[in-house]
Amino acid sequence: MSSPLRVSLVEAFTAQPLGGNGAAVVLLEEPAAAGWMQQLAASLKQSETAFLWRNAAGRWLLRWFTPSCEVALCGHATLAATLALGRWSVLSQGQSLHLGSRSGPLRVALKDDHPGAASIELPAEPLQPLPCPHALASVLGATIEGYWGSELGYRVVLLNDQVNLQQLPNPAEALQGADRQGLVVMQAFPSEHQRSVLGERCDYQLRFFAPGLGLPEDPVTGSAHALVAPWWAERLGRNSIRGWQPSARSGGMLCEVLTPNAVRLTGTGHCLWDGTLDAGSSGSDPSGWEVCRVA
């Protein structure tokens, strides 16, 4: 008979309950099979479910599943996993560790200068300018000032400051081609709005639509902010900036460009519930975890 597993539901990148982006975090006792993890993620119905397993060498490994597929990188579920490790007394305030993942080793830490906050270091790749699909401006109902691709597979759109991004109708059903895998729609933060993250005013905002990943709209998307933060940092002439996501469950984060290929995201989170679950045998499959690259 299988033992109950420890699980937390953490709302990431928010200082308040019932905001930000929810992620379930499951602490595994063995290297679970992908099919079982996918079924559990579908049952938990969060935008992402993070699975943590400590292998025989003592290294922590992390995988992420949406309700419909496994993904190579997820920022908010990594932040949620970090906060859960703190709640479970695996990680102490001010302590850091590396989580092996499909996107390489990710350094995470609980902040000692901001109680309740954690930082995660994610890979970043330069945006690649592309010709904008003719139909996309009609789909968004707005003038497009820039359009890029990325190694992550997301496409990125820059809108002018006059567009009300928060009220932009969700375009997910009308997106075509590569835009369906993940479309970041961003703009400079409106000067008349006052939103702050960790005590400082936000610099830009974005929304993220990914119907190809089973997510018509993701509330607060760490991987999207890590992707565009270097572009905004260069535009604003500084390495530390703050991004906001004006979705129905809004939230934001501090973004620090560490190198051309790495960004540190810092944000707060709220544990909505913590307990155990009995989901039957996970079907141990060590080979499925070989995709995780460790430090």
What does this structure look like?
This protein is α+β, with helices and mostly antiparallel strands and 295 residues long. The chain folds into 2 domains: 5-123 and 270-291, Roll (Diaminopimelate Epimerase, Chain A, domain 1); 128-260, Diaminopimelate Epimerase, Chain A, domain 1. 16% of the residues lie in helices and 38% in strands. The chain has helices at residues 34-44, 75-87, 134-140, 222-236, and strands spanning 5-12, 21-27, 48-54, 60-65, 70-71, 96-100, 106-110, 117-123, 128-129, 144-149, 155-159, 183-188, 196-197, 200-201, 204-210, 215-218, 240-245, 251-259, 262-277. The strands form 2 sheets. Strands 1-2-3-4-6-7-8-19 form an 8-stranded mixed beta barrel. The protein has a two-stranded antiparallel sheet with strand order 13-14. A hairpin with a 5-residue loop joins strand 6 and strand 7 (106-110). The mean pLDDT is 95.
Secondary structure layout plus pairing:
Layout: E1 5-12, E2 21-27, H1 34-44, E3 48-54, E4 60-65, E5 70-71, H2 75-87, E6 96-100, E7 106-110, E8 117-123, E9 128-129, H3 134-140, E10 144-149, E11 155-159, E12 183-188, E13 196-197, E14 200-201, E15 204-210, E16 215-218, H4 222-236, E17 240-245, E18 251-259, E19 262-277
Parallel strand pairs: 2-3, 4-6, 11-12, 15-17
Antiparallel strand pairs: 1-2, 1-19, 3-4, 4-5, 6-7, 7-8, 8-19, 9-10, 10-11, 12-15, 13-14, 15-16, 17-18, 18-19
